[in-house]
Amino acid sequence: MERKEFNDYVRQLVVGVNERVPLLNGSYSTAINFDNAATTPPFHCVLRKIEEFCPWYSSVHRGTGYKSVTTSDWYEAAREEIKAFVHADEEKDILIYTKSTTEAINVLAHTLSQQDGRTVVLSSEMEHLANDLPWRNAFTTDYVAVDRSGRLVLANLEKKLRQYGGSVKLVAVTGASNVTGYMNPIHQIAAICHQYGAQLLVDGAQLVPHCPVDMKPHSSREHIDFLVFSAHKMYAPFGVGILIGPRKAFHDVSPLCKGGGAVKLVGRQFVDWDDSPYKEEAGTPNVIGVVALVAAIRLMTQLDVREIHDYERELTEYIMTGLSEIPGIRLFGRTRSGEDRVSLFSFQAEGLDHRAFAKMLSYEAGIAVRSGLFCAHPYVENLLGVTEKELNYYHKHQEARVPGLVRVSLGVYNTCREADVFLETVGHIIRHKDHYKQKYEALDSQAGSGNVPFWVKRHVP
């Protein structure tokens, strides 16, 4: 299938792509969503599957009624289908449902902190905070360096593994940066980790939705020990996260979340925890979220995840090339020849605040992007060259405007036409920078006085 035909077909499969949103001038424009790294719209088939499932919806593992048994069977069968999507081991790996990637990493941190032995976790300087903060209190935490462009330095990883002399329990790295779109060589990293007796966690939140992922057999030096990802970033709403790892890692430890559904028997003086994964899934499970994820996985498999990746990469390069030709734009995430990436990158517009620029794109053309530090504060601060002195100032003066970036993140349904609208809008804003700067400073002042313009109000039915 040709790229345009592929995109035209896929676009029909996604909810809300033709919705119109209000602009500052009172008109309406078809929304352009370039904020897919935060969350994606759902596939139509996901909503249809949920509607089809709802008449049979019941609580999981809670009853003997036909609907409850049917729901429970479906919920358990889904584990194997999700595992197969990333080539996890059918017997040796377990899949734990969580509410998000963030919760999945917190569950793993809590689990590993109860085990004796190695006490060090190596994260990296390019991580989302979800793959940084959970490790800080329970372990000695150190960070693998990135270079000036923001790429992980593998030589520094190996140096730190040697430096800690066998004390590293886990290396926790992102599969793809949520700021620059750089893809880490996860299988090469796995081989390095295993050479020094450490395990590897891959944060797949920005990787799994965009390209094929293979955890590889446990016997392989390139095996991914733990993998986490989220449904809401892969066209499946209703909030479910995934944690996959070796069954033995969860044996004989207490769960992070405690309550009903996680136990075999409880007395006043004892608690008999259930086996994993059930003991990690206290409370009533989010079976609708699982239904949504499986429906999305089936469609992504049908579309071919490699085809999705190739299309998104071409569109990303098209936009980045166009932006590079606009004076005053500084790009973060430019790739080298032959280097792979996922479909997101960030940029700065000289002389314009990142928050204001994001508002301009939205209010003038209906284009949604993200601005700020993207929950990857140290990474963005490093990319921008923010000094420790400056950072302490922002810490003490929370009214100060913290620097940041504007992020563009694409989905498989985005088009070249949308890219052209985006590039034309950015170019127009840059050419009339002073006008827009004054205009949005006045709007900020107006909003600060409590006089909120009509177009800021919600236009949702």
Spans where pLDDT lies below 50 across 5 or more residues:
none
Average of the residue pLDDT scores: 94
Number of strands: 17
Rg, Å, rounded: 23 Å
CATH class of the largest domain: Alpha Beta
Biggest sheet overview: 7 strands, mixed
Helix content range of the residues, please? 25-40%
Category by helix and strand content? alpha/beta
User: Into which percentage range does the β-strand content fall?
Assistant: 15-25%
Strand order of the largest sheet: 4-10-9-8-7-5-6
Count of domain modules: 2
CATH architect. name of the largest domain: 3-Layer(aba) Sandwich
Count of alpha and pi helical runs = 14
Shape: globular
Distance between the ends: 37 Å
CATH superfamily of the largest domain: Type I PLP-dependent aspartate aminotransferase-like (Major domain)
Short description:
Its cofactor is pyridoxal 5'-phosphate. The protein has 461 residues and is of the alpha/beta class.
Task: Tag the structure with descriptive keywords.
461 residues; alpha/beta; Aspartate Aminotransferase, domain 1; Aspartate Aminotransferase, domain 2; seven-stranded mixed sheet; 17 strands
Your description of this structure?
The protein is α/β, with parallel strands linked by helices. The chain is 38% helix and 16% strand. It has 14 helices and 17 strands. The chain is globular and about 70 Å long.
Summarize the SSE layout with pairings:
Blueprint: H1 3-11, E1 20-22, E2 28-30, E3 32-33, H2 44-53, H3 66-85, E4 93-98, H4 101-113, E5 120-124, H5 133-136, E6 140-144, H6 154-163, E7 168-174, H7 186-195, E8 199-203, E9 226-230, E10 241-246, E11 263-266, E12 271-273, H8 287-303, H9 305-324, E13 329-332, E14 344-349, H10 354-365, E15 367-368, E16 370-372, H11 377-384, H12 388-396, E17 405-409, H13 416-431, H14 433-448
Parallel strand pairs: 3-15, 5-6, 5-7, 7-8, 8-9
Antiparallel strand pairs: 1-2, 4-10, 9-10, 11-12, 13-14, 14-17, 16-17
Helix pairs in contact: 2-8, 3-8, 9-13, 10-13
